[in-house]
Design goal:
Layout lengths: L7 H4 L1 H13 L3 H6 L7 E2 L10 E2 L13 E6 L5 E7 L2 E8 L11
Antiparallel strand pairs: 1-2, 2-5, 3-4, 4-5
Protein backbone atom coordinates (compact mmCIF):
# COMPACT_ATOMS: atom_id res chain seq x y z
CA UNK A 1 0.00 0.00 0.00
CA UNK A 2 1.35 3.41 -1.00
CA UNK A 3 1.75 5.95 1.79
CA UNK A 4 0.23 9.43 1.34
CA UNK A 5 2.68 12.31 0.92
CA UNK A 6 3.18 14.41 4.06
CA UNK A 7 1.09 17.48 4.72
CA UNK A 8 2.94 20.68 3.81
CA UNK A 9 2.10 22.04 7.29
CA UNK A 10 4.00 19.11 8.85
CA UNK A 11 7.13 19.84 6.81
CA UNK A 12 6.98 23.64 6.39
CA UNK A 13 4.66 24.98 9.13
CA UNK A 14 5.90 28.58 8.81
CA UNK A 15 5.13 28.59 5.08
CA UNK A 16 1.58 27.33 5.62
CA UNK A 17 0.97 29.90 8.38
CA UNK A 18 2.20 32.67 6.06
CA UNK A 19 0.10 31.42 3.14
CA UNK A 20 -3.04 31.21 5.30
CA UNK A 21 -2.53 34.78 6.57
CA UNK A 22 -1.86 36.16 3.08
CA UNK A 23 -4.88 34.36 1.65
CA UNK A 24 -7.09 35.82 4.40
CA UNK A 25 -5.74 39.31 3.54
CA UNK A 26 -6.68 38.72 -0.11
CA UNK A 27 -10.21 37.65 0.82
CA UNK A 28 -9.53 34.02 -0.15
CA UNK A 29 -11.08 32.51 2.99
CA UNK A 30 -11.73 29.03 1.56
CA UNK A 31 -8.18 28.72 0.26
CA UNK A 32 -6.86 29.97 3.62
CA UNK A 33 -8.61 27.01 5.21
CA UNK A 34 -7.70 24.40 2.60
CA UNK A 35 -4.01 25.39 2.46
CA UNK A 36 -3.62 23.68 5.83
CA UNK A 37 -4.52 20.34 4.25
CA UNK A 38 -2.40 20.33 1.07
CA UNK A 39 0.16 17.57 0.65
CA UNK A 40 3.79 17.82 -0.39
CA UNK A 41 3.75 15.73 -3.56
CA UNK A 42 7.17 16.95 -4.73
CA UNK A 43 9.33 19.89 -5.66
CA UNK A 44 9.07 21.54 -9.03
CA UNK A 45 12.27 19.92 -10.26
CA UNK A 46 13.54 22.90 -12.26
CA UNK A 47 16.83 23.06 -10.37
CA UNK A 48 16.95 26.87 -10.32
CA UNK A 49 18.60 28.15 -7.14
CA UNK A 50 15.96 30.87 -6.67
CA UNK A 51 13.03 28.41 -6.85
CA UNK A 52 11.59 26.37 -3.99
CA UNK A 53 8.21 25.72 -5.61
CA UNK A 54 6.29 22.62 -4.62
CA UNK A 55 3.67 20.40 -6.20
CA UNK A 56 0.69 19.74 -3.97
CA UNK A 57 -1.16 17.45 -6.37
CA UNK A 58 -0.24 15.08 -9.18
CA UNK A 59 -0.23 16.79 -12.56
CA UNK A 60 1.77 16.10 -15.73
CA UNK A 61 4.75 18.46 -15.78
CA UNK A 62 4.66 21.06 -18.53
CA UNK A 63 0.94 20.55 -19.20
CA UNK A 64 -1.67 23.29 -18.69
CA UNK A 65 -4.00 22.87 -15.75
CA UNK A 66 -7.03 23.29 -18.01
CA UNK A 67 -10.58 24.43 -17.24
CA UNK A 68 -11.19 25.89 -13.80
CA UNK A 69 -7.56 27.01 -13.38
CA UNK A 70 -6.65 30.34 -11.84
CA UNK A 71 -3.48 31.89 -10.43
CA UNK A 72 -3.62 33.49 -7.01
CA UNK A 73 -0.67 35.88 -6.57
CA UNK A 74 0.04 36.84 -2.97
CA UNK A 75 1.96 39.77 -1.51
CA UNK A 76 4.61 38.40 0.89
CA UNK A 77 7.21 40.64 2.54
CA UNK A 78 9.92 38.87 0.51
CA UNK A 79 9.99 37.20 -2.88
CA UNK A 80 7.02 35.77 -4.72
CA UNK A 81 4.26 33.38 -3.71
CA UNK A 82 1.72 32.32 -6.34
CA UNK A 83 -0.81 29.50 -6.06
CA UNK A 84 -2.15 27.52 -9.00
CA UNK A 85 -5.71 26.58 -8.12
CA UNK A 86 -8.04 24.31 -10.08
CA UNK A 87 -11.71 24.24 -9.08
CA UNK A 88 -10.84 25.33 -5.53
CA UNK A 89 -7.96 22.86 -5.12
CA UNK A 90 -4.40 24.13 -4.61
CA UNK A 91 -2.30 22.24 -7.15
CA UNK A 92 1.03 24.08 -6.97
CA UNK A 93 2.75 26.64 -4.75
CA UNK A 94 5.24 28.80 -6.62
CA UNK A 95 7.93 30.03 -4.21
CA UNK A 96 10.54 32.31 -5.79
CA UNK A 97 13.35 34.58 -4.58
CA UNK A 98 12.85 33.77 -0.89
CA UNK A 99 15.12 32.67 1.94
CA UNK A 100 15.47 28.87 2.23
CA UNK A 101 12.40 27.18 3.65
CA UNK A 102 12.90 25.81 7.16
CA UNK A 103 11.82 22.21 7.59
CA UNK A 104 10.22 21.20 10.85
CA UNK A 105 12.64 19.14 12.86
CA UNK A 106 11.01 15.99 14.12
CA UNK A 107 12.01 14.66 17.56
Amino acid sequence: MQQEPPLVREVFPDLVDELAALLEEEGERELAITVRDVRLVGDCGCGDDFCQSIRTADHPQGQPFGPGHRCVPLMPAQGMLVLDVVKGRIMYIEILERPPLRRRVRP
